[in-house]
Amino acid sequence: MPPPGMSREEAQALAGMIAIFAITAAWWALALWPVRGSPAWLERTRYACFGVNENGLPDAGGWIGLIGGPLGMLLILVIGWSDSLRCLLQRAGTSRAVGGTFAALGIGCMLLATGAAVRVEQARASSRIVDRIVGPVDIPRIDRETPPLTLTAHTGDLLNIHDLAGRPILVTFAFAHCTTVCPLIVQDVLNAQRTLRGSGESPAVLIVTLDPWRDTPSRLPSIANAWQLPETDAWVLSGTVAEVEAALDSWGVPRSRDFITGDVTHPSLVYVVDREGRIAYTASGGTGLIVSLVQKL
User: Fold this and answer.
1) Do 142 and 42 share a domain, yes or no?
2) Residue 127, Cβ density class (10 Å: 0-12 exposed, 13-18 middle, ≥19 buried)
3) What is the pTM of this model?
4) Which of 4, 77, 197, 200 lies most in the core, judged by the most C-beta atoms within 10 Å?
5) Distance of CA 144 to CAs 110, 138, 158, 208, 274, Å?
6) Does one domain contain both 192 and 165?
């Protein structure tokens, strides 16, 4: 039953406003304030819904959803309950309950917008600090011989890393079913390649699967398409389970596979290989850092 003096339509309109605010607050909290140690399914949901940039903030599509979703719901409410909303606004001046609800919603919206602005600035500031403090000058050169790497590429060819000697190479590791770390590291190396293209330092990109059980050679073309690999100078690699596992072992890639779900736990890892075919640096990601390390070769 609606409160005394309020029609059912007015009560529904007021409940709709409260619901829109609650949904928006929960949506923005999920997108902007990730919880340390949160379960994998929650991180997958966050990435699937909003995308994630290297600074931890949503990508462009995520921001469109975060802003456009609440505005769309509000527009539907205004169109469907315009008369009721007009009556509620008039009632706000005479009803303490209605006026208090409007005031609480207004304050909540201001707090949500302020908190989001602070979170965005913190993320951007942290990104600038990391770029300044953890610069390429602080990362020692490894200068280690490149381990063997001969696997099947998404093009159907057998690719040997030594065939790419004479140019820088970025080697990283990911798998198709991963929706958290892998899309970010793939995005980082491809962004670095695009940034360096045309500068005379454009590196080749090799992405070795961590899940040869599911990322079989026949599936590699669809994986390359999903990761938006360019038509040239970037390959995703797989092979038999034994071949891939041997390659990962020789490159020292730490990993742990859940034999029930098939998911692989692994760190973000990028090897920067110089023109002579030797590993020069390792990085955990970050487009700017990878670009700087290639430029140091």
Assistant:
1) no
2) middle
3) 0.58
4) 77
5) 54, 18, 24, 19, 10
6) yes
